[in-house]
Design goal:
- With 466 residues, this protein is an alpha/beta fold.
- It is built from 14 helices and 22 strands.
- The strands form 5 sheets. Strands 1, 2, 3, 4, 5, 6 and 17 form a 7-stranded mixed sheet that branches. A 5-stranded parallel sheet has the order 8-15-9-10-11. A 5-stranded antiparallel sheet has the order 18-19-22-21-20, sandwiched between helices.
- Helix 1 packs parallel to helix 9, helix 3 packs antiparallel against helix 4 and helix 3 runs parallel beside helix 6.
């Protein structure tokens, strides 16, 4: 089997890259070690978690807000089995869609573990041990990442679990302990909090979602407290033990005092690490960084000239849409085109409710860089649309250059923030000023009016509705 390019890994980076390669006329193969395509994102990450987030939010509204809306129903009950079944159906539909796209674009799919024999030969080892060889001019590594842990924590996948197992629980935890206050922990923690679980979050740093603007972490913490979350910030986990159905997490606070938190499940969500095991990178001399990432240049090319790497296995944010952009970038570069990626303008989203979304500089980064800036804020509670839907938690925060008024960062917490942040990306890609956005007509009543008002606040400190 001879190909122009072979992609190892079929997650968002891999399958998008393969499609773009095929569109550009390259004979393309994709190698996936699992039986289904789509990688972590479609199978045990982005898609299934959002399915459960939506299901749990529906249940929460039925329990807490329907009566206020004038909807009288019997007390709702959680049918976790059906929620998990619906989640699995959503996953299957998406995975089937990737299968269709591979056929449509005439991409050959090889199931099995892909590994290098040499820089132009990839061995595919199927689950039954059968081996086949692929000859290829170029290779794109897109093998993604897997959950990270701490060396002293034994993840038994029963009581001490990762995000993968959290998507398949047979019961709603009585008390879910979440180690890590980042995106994954807050999303899955909120799923089970809405369904009735007590949730305790233990975070080493002094705030939640530490990669985002500090204001967003504080506002998210306020919202999650309403769901019954407990927070142990500035706590360093020192041990996790299991006895029967009880899990005990030991941590030290900033005073050096020992704290014990007991629950029936413990979700370890301290981030993810690149997955490169079994690729045989050593056989062709591909270099890794100290953090285990594949070392690449600005063109995402490794030190082996015909091998590229994209997504979670290389530097940068571990985001599906970042991997997709890199997949297209590499494919187009191979054909002599001049694509670009503005890494600073890749948005980040937390799919709790309210959602959190961010793009550009945070206030902490601007302070650290010594840049002069101004801030415009507008709360959702001042929006007619938010009051109508009872989604009044949150705000829009716009950071603009003090002299030029160019938007430097946009940070949103509130209903539909994940969709709203696209406006910030668009504005910043075209280097718009806060005044530019403020002078655009925004439909009324909408959540997007909060962006306009925040830009008015940043421009001349003259929001209309507060």
């Amino acid at each position: 089997m001879k190909y122009d390019v072979t992609v190892i890994g079929s997650g968002p980076g891999g399958y998008v890259s393969a499609i773009r390669c095929a569109q550009l006329g390259l004979k393309t193969a994709i190698v996936e070690k699992y039986d289904t395509l789509g990688g972590t994102c479609l199978n045990v990450g982005c898609i299934p978690s959002k399915a459960l987030l939506d299901s749990s939010e529906h249940f929460h509204n039925a329990s807490e807000t329907f009566k206020e809306h004038g909807i009288d129903i019997p007390t709702p009950k959680v049918n976790l089995t059906q929620m998990i079944a619906r989640k699995s159906k959503v996953v299957q539909e998406n995975v089937s869609g990737i299968d269709y796209l591979m056929k449509k674009n005439k991409i050959d799919v090889h199931h099995g573990l892909g590994s290098f024999v040499d820089k132009n030969t990839v061995k595919v080892t199927a689950t039954d041990g059968k081996e086949s060889m692929i000859n290829t001019d170029k290779v794109i590594i897109a093998t993604g990442s897997k959950p990270a842990s701490l060396p002293f924590i034994e993840i038994d996948k029963k009581r001490v679990i990762t995000s993968t197992e959290a998507l398949e629980l047979k019961e709603v935890p009585k008390h879910l302990i979440v180690i890590g206050g980042g995106v994954i922990g807050m999303e899955l923690g909120s799923v089970y909090a809405r369904l009735g679980a007590k949730v305790s979050v233990i975070e080493y740093l002094d705030r939640l979602i530490p990669s985002m603007d500090g204001t967003m972490g504080k506002e998210l913490q306020k919202s999650l407290k309403k769901l019954g979350f407990d927070f142990y910030l500035n706590h360093k986990v020192s041990g996790v033990t299991t006895k029967g159905k009880e899990v005990t997490v030991t941590a030290e606070n900033k005073k050096g005092e020992t704290v014990e938190v007991k629950g029936d499940y413990c979700l370890v969500s301290i981030g993810r690490k690149p997955f490169t095991e079994g690729l045989g990178l050593d056989k062709i001399g591909v270099k890794l960084t100290e953090r285990g990432q594949i070392e690449v240049n600005d063109h995402l090319q490794t030190n082996v000239e015909n091998v590229w790497a994209i997504g979670d296995v290389v530097k940068g944010a571990m985001l599906a849409h970042k991997a997709e952009e890199e997949g297209v970038f590499v494919a187009e570069q191979m054909m002599g085109q001049k694509p670009h990626i503005h890494y600073h303008l890749i948005p980040g989203v937390v799919y709790t409710w309210p959602e959190v979304a961010s793009v550009g500089y945070t206030e902490e980064q601007l302070k650290s860089d010594g840049k002069s800036y101004k801030i415009g804020k507008f709360p959702f509670k001042a929006l007619g649309r938010a009051r109508a839907s009872m989604d009044v938690d949150g705000m829009v925060k716009v950071l603009a250059d003090k002299e030029t008024d160019e938007i430097l960062g946009m940070h949103i917490i509130g209903a539909r923030a994940a969709d709203m942040i696209a406006t910030g990306v668009t504005a910043m890609e075209f280097r718009a000023s806060a005044e530019d956005v403020a002078r655009m007509s925004h439909a009324h009543p909408t959540y997007m009016e909060a962006v306009k008002e925040a830009c008015l606040a940043a421009t001349e400190n003259r929001p209309i509705h507060i």
